[in-house]
Amino acid sequence: MSAVTDTLPPCPECSSVYTYEMGALLVCPECDHEWEPGAGTDADVSDGPREIRDAVGNVLADGDTVTVVKDLKVKGSATAIKVGTKVRGIRLVDGVGDHDIDCKVDGFGPMQLKSSVVKKV
Hints:
InterPro entries: YjdM (IPR004624), YjdM_C (IPR013988), YjdM_N (IPR013987). This protein has helices spanning 2-7, 42-45, and strands at residues 20-22, 25-27, 34-35, 66-68, 72-73, 80-81, 86-87, 91-92, 99-105, 109-114, 118-120. It is mostly beta strands. The protein has a 3-stranded antiparallel β-sheet with strand order 1-2-3, with no helix packed on it. It has a 3-stranded antiparallel β-sheet with strand order 7-4-11, with no helix packed on it. Strands 8-9-10 form a 3-stranded antiparallel β-sheet, with no helix packed on it. A hairpin with a 6-residue loop joins strand 2 and strand 3. The longest helix is centred in the N-terminal third of the chain and has 6 residues, at 2-7. It is elongated, with a radius of gyration of 22 Å.
């Protein structure tokens, strides 16, 4: 029985690993949820354009100008990026971790920022 539970995905409702096949559906015996294999996967979520929002909820777009809303320490630098620093011409990317803005900060050079630390101007 462990061979079956190792190959089938866990239940998307309750995360139970005891799913089984019933015809063309997968069934969870713990919560009675039934679903089609492959339905509701990450591929379905990534079909639409990703919406990136700033610290106050404004939708960001390529080329926007933003201001930094909190002091940011920069690795390898003795100074920090101060609150209110304007960053012009941002580019939205899938960066490392939560870093989703690619930009050039005056005095610091090119870097990636998190959208949660900027506000659209």
